[in-house]
Design a protein that fits this description.
The protein is α+β, with helices and mostly antiparallel strands. The protein folds into three domains: 35 residues; 87 residues; 91 residues, no CATH class. The chain is built from three helices and 16 strands. The longest helix is centred in the middle third of the chain and has 31 residues.
């Protein structure tokens, strides 16, 4: 029967309290080590969602078919292609801290994106965090889209600046804008890229954050091809905009 301190029922003496506490701490420490290992164990057939574009080395023993606008080509072991946001990867084999995975493409890719069925290797640690990163990217995009819509709703225009040189930008228009090419017109959608040209004008529509602005671009002349058409919206750092104004 445990010794009672000062005869008080149910209370252990200080030496026994310390011993019991040490046992509890040790037990909790063991649980803390075991639970993460169980939670993040990766098995064959586990899947993850690709969070963004990345080049991978093809490991298929047999060539896979890659589609292009002018025909088809074979993609052989050791060659590269790109996995895209929204694609999924499925574990085929676990090899320590490396995984052999099979890719399923979103939609029907054309060109350099990987077709479905491509095998490649990925670090276990990258696989474990991939879906969480995909969710973070989607949430951040949603918040940015809402901010753009909020700014457009205010219909306020601020200062303007002249573009000093060519630069690639990410389109933030909620609805596609028309981009003109010699062989026809094509939609330029959210987060696609185009180039702003020297002599173009950008006008502030509002603040995206404490350090960035939403601006609208007015092209010099009538651009064809990859240059941005007038009306494209994009985000720019306040410091870069102020530098343009001083240029």
């Amino acid at each position: 029967m445990p010794h009672r301190e000062n005869g008080v029922p149910g209370r252990l003496a200080p030496t026994e309290e310390g011993s019991e506490m040490k046992k509890l701490v040790c037990a909790l420490s063991m649980i803390a080590l075991i639970v993460p290992a169980l939670a993040f164990a990766v098995n064959v057939d586990d899947t993850a969602i690709v969070s963004g574009w990345e080049w991978v080395d093809v490991l298929n023993d047999k060539p896979v078919t890659q589609h292009f606008s002018n025909g088809e080509s074979t993609l052989k072991k050791g060659e590269t292609c790109g996995i895209e946001e929204g694609g999924t990867i499925t574990v085929v084999k676990v090899n320590g801290q490396k995984l052999l995975v099979e890719y399923t493409a979103p939609g029907s890719p054309m060109g350099t994106p990987c077709p479905s069925g491509v095998l490649f290797e990925i670090a276990t640690s990258d696989f474990e965090t991939m879906t969480a990163e995909y969710n973070r990217v989607i949430e951040a995009r949603s918040q940015k889209q809402l901010k753009v819509i909020e700014i457009l709703g205010s219909m306020k225009r601020g200062d303007s600046a002249s573009v000093p040189s060519w630069d690639w930008v990410d389109v933030l228009n909620p609805t596609p804008v028309t981009q003109n090419f010699r062989n026809g017109n094509f939609p330029l959608s959210y987060e696609e890229t185009c180039g702003i040209e020297a002599g173009g004008i950008i006008t502030v529509l509002g603040e995206m954050s404490s350090t960035t602005l939403l601006v609208e671009y007015t092209a010099p002349g009538s651009p064809m091809g990859t240059p941005c058409p007038s009306g494209v919206l994009f985000e720019i750092k306040k410091d870069d905009f102020n530098a343009m104004r001083r240029h």
